[in-house]
Amino acid sequence: MKILLLGAGGREHAIAWKLSQSPKCEKLFIAPGNPGTAKCGTNVQMSATDFPAIAKFISENNIDLVVVGPEEPLVKGVTDFLKTDPLTKNVKIVGPSTEGAKLEGSKDYAKAFMMRHGVPTAAYGTFTKETLSDAIAFLHTLKSPYVFKADGLAAGKGVLILDDIKEAENELNQMFSGKFGAAGNKVVIEEFLNGIELSVFVLTDGNKYKILPAAKDYKRIGDGDKG
């Protein structure tokens, strides 16, 4: 099986490392990859969001499987593109459709989804620059610390947790003024939940599923399990 892995981060290095160990892996390409992935397969100088170039590469190299690592190409629709392009419509893809990727690409969409389907989640409100006064009013109904999340993708940097109400109001203004670019055009303000953060990953084809090991993400530096 010839595999194309999209992405250039540490996540892709870990995926490439494991894929390369499979007896089914005949050839592994990583686009664009990094020095770590180069030890697991062949890096290809191609952007993970250049969909026409990706389709051409898949066709020319007889790729059987595409694994998408980063959120950005998924949110921009790489899966739908490859499934509808005549060159690649039969290739197998690990990665959700554009609609499925909205759960990662929009905090507001994800929160609304959870509310609709009864998935427990923190109380929240979603606001734009035009509803700043409503956002500040909502902020004052909450207890500190205050949680702000840029609605769109912000490379893992779009979440703020603040203790002081004045600082919170100031940061809210900065978010609406472009602190996180277009990702912050819409901001989710959330009730703070105290506890251990945990991520659980699941692979599914829509019918069957496989639960992968859980992971704990440390957002702030600190020794002694204080991250």
What do these coordinates show?
The chain has 8 helices and 11 strands. The protein is α/β, with parallel strands linked by helices. The strands form 3 sheets. A 5-stranded parallel β-sheet has the order 3-2-1-4-5. A 4-stranded antiparallel β-sheet has the order 6-9-7-8, with helices on both faces. It has a two-stranded antiparallel sheet with strand order 10-11. The longest helix is centred in the C-terminal third of the chain and has 12 residues, at 165-176. The termini are far apart. The model has no long low-confidence stretch (mean pLDDT 90).
Q: Major sheet: order of its strands?
A: 3-2-1-4-5
**What is the molecular shape?**
elongated
Helix-strand makeup class: alpha/beta
Helix content: 25-40%
How many helices does DSSP assign?
8
The average pLDDT score comes to 90
β-strand number? 11
Distance between the termini: 41 Å
The SSE order reads EHEEHEHHEHHEHEEHEEE
Main β-sheet: number of strands, strand sense, barrel status? 5 strands, parallel
Based on CA atoms alone, the radius of gyration comes out at 20 Å
Stretches where pLDDT is under 50 for at least 5 consecutive residues are none
Indicate the proportion of strand residues. 15-25%
